[in-house]
C-alpha cells in the first residue's frame, strides 16, 4: 500500500495542519516507513484520521509489529524513534488494554505526538480503531483487520452490554463514597459516569465511536445545545445536596437512553431493578 498524506488546501509544505505542520506530518510518516521492518504497518488515528481535526489537534499514530518482536521493539522505541523537533517532555504509559503500548512526545512548540504500538495478538476492536486510516501496510494484515471490524448492529449489542456494566460499576463506586462522605472521589466518579453517558449518546445519535475518556470533546458542535442543557445540572458544587442533584440528573439521563436503545431486550427486568435500586441508594 502506498503512503498517504493528510489532505490540505494549502500546497505550502509548512502550512498549518492541526497542532503541527503538514511538513512535520509527512516527515514522521517517512521516518516510520524507514523503520519497516520491523514495523509491518501503521496508520493515523484520532481526529486527523477521522478527518475532523482543527488547529489544536495532535497526532496519533498506530503501529503494528510482529508478535515475536513486540517486546524488544517497545522496550527500545524511545531510543530509535526519530523526532522532527527537540523533545521537551515524553511519557511512557506502558501497555493499555485496547490501545497497545503508548508513548507520548511533546515538542518545544508544544505540539505532541502519540504512538500506540500493537502486534497481531494485542489488536482489539475499539472506538479509536474505527478512526484509524491505514497509511502503510507491508503484508496487508492491518488493512484487512480494519475492514473486518463489526458493523453497527453488532456494535450496538456490545455498546449496550458495556454501558450496562459501566453504569453499575460507577454506581457502586459512587455508593461507597457517599457512605464515606468522601466528596472529592465522589465528584470524580460523577465525571466518569458523565463520560460513559456521552460515549453512548454519540454512538446512538451519530454512529461515532468514542471511548468514555474522549467523549467530552466537541459536545456542543457534535451533539447540540439540547445535550449541553441536559448536562448542565450534572456539574455539582462540593456539597452533599449539589452532588445528589447532579447524580440524579446524569443517572436519569444514562438509564433512560440505555433503555430506549434496547431493541434486543438486553436490559431485562432484573437489570432495570438493579438500576432503580442503585439510583435510590
> Average pLDDT, to the nearest integer?
80
Helix-strand string: HEHEHEEEHEHHHHHHH
Outline the low-pLDDT stretches: 1-18
State the helicity in percent bands: 40-55%
Radius of gyration (Å): 21 Å
Biggest sheet layout: 6 strands, mixed
Which of globular, elongated, flat, extended, rod-shaped describes the shape?
elongated
Task: Kindly describe this structure.
The protein is α+β, with helices and mostly antiparallel strands and 281 residues long. Helices cover 49% and strands 14% of the residues. It contains eleven helices and six strands. It has helices at 22-34, 46-50, 70-80, 127-130, 141-147, 152-180, 183-206, 219-223, 225-231, 240-260, 269-280; strands at residues 41-44, 59-64, 87-96, 100-107, 112-118, 133-137. A hairpin with a 3-residue loop joins strand 3 (87-96) and strand 4 (100-107). The chain starts with 21 loop residues before the first helix and ends with a helix.
Which key phrases capture this entry?
281 residues; alpha+beta; 6-stranded mixed β-sheet; 6 strands; elongated; disordered N terminus
What is the fold's blueprint, element by element?
Layout: H1 22-34, E1 41-44, H2 46-50, E2 59-64, H3 70-80, E3 87-96, E4 100-107, E5 112-118, H4 127-130, E6 133-137, H5 141-147, H6 152-180, H7 183-206, H8 219-223, H9 225-231, H10 240-260, H11 269-280
Parallel strand pairs: 2-5
Antiparallel strand pairs: 1-2, 1-6, 3-4, 4-5
Sum this structure up briefly:
With 281 residues, the protein is an alpha+beta fold. Helices cover 49% and strands 14% of the residues.
Amino acid at each position: 500500500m502506498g503512503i498517504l498524506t493528510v489532505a490540505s488546501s494549502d500546497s505550502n509544505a509548512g502550512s498549518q495542519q492541526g497542532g503541527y505542520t503538514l511538513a512535520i506530518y509527512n516527515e514522521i510518516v517517512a521516518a516510520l516507513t524507514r523503520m519497516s521492518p520491523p514495523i509491518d504497518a501503521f496508520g493515523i488515528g484520532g481526529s486527523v484520521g477521522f478527518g475532523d481535526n482543527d488547529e489544536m489537534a495532535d497526532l496519533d499514530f498506530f503501529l503494528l509489529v510482529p508478535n515475536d518482536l513486540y517486546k524488544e521493539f517497545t522496550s527500545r522505541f524511545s531510543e530509535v524513534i526519530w523526532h522532527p523537533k527537540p523533545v521537551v517532555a515524553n511519557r511512557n504509559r506502558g501497555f493499555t488494554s485496547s490501545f497497545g503500548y503508548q508513548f507520548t512526545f511533546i515538542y518545544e512548540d508544544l505540539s505532541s505526538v502519540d504512538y500506540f504500538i500493537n502486534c497481531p495478538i494485542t489488536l482489539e476492536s475499539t472506538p479509536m480503531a474505527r478512526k484509524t486510516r491505514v497509511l502503510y501496510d507491508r503484508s496487508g494484515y492491518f488493512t484487512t483487520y480494519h475492514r473486518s471490524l463489526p458493523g453497527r448492529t453488532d456494535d450496538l449489542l456490545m455498546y449496550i452490554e458495556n454501558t450496562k456494566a459501566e453504569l453499575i460499576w460507577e454506581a457502586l463506586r459512587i455508593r461507597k463514597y457517599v457512605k464515606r462522605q468522601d466528596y472529592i472521589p465522589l465528584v470524580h466518579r460523577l465525571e466518569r459516569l458523565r463520560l460513559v453517558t456521552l460515549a453512548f449518546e454519540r454512538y446512538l445519535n451519530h454512529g461515532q465511536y468514542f471511548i468514555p475518556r474522549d467523549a467530552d470533546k466537541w459536545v456542543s458542535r457534535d451533539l447540540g445545545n439540547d445535550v449541553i442543557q441536559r448536562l448542565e445540572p450534572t456539574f455539582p458544587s462540593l456539597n452533599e445536596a449539589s452532588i445528589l442533584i447532579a447524580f440524579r440528573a446524569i443517572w436519569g439521563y444514562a438509564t433512560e437512553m440505555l433503555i430506549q436503545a434496547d431493541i434486543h431486550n438486553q436490559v431485562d427486568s432484573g437489570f432495570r431493578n438493579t438500576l432503580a435500586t442503585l439510583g435510590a441508594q
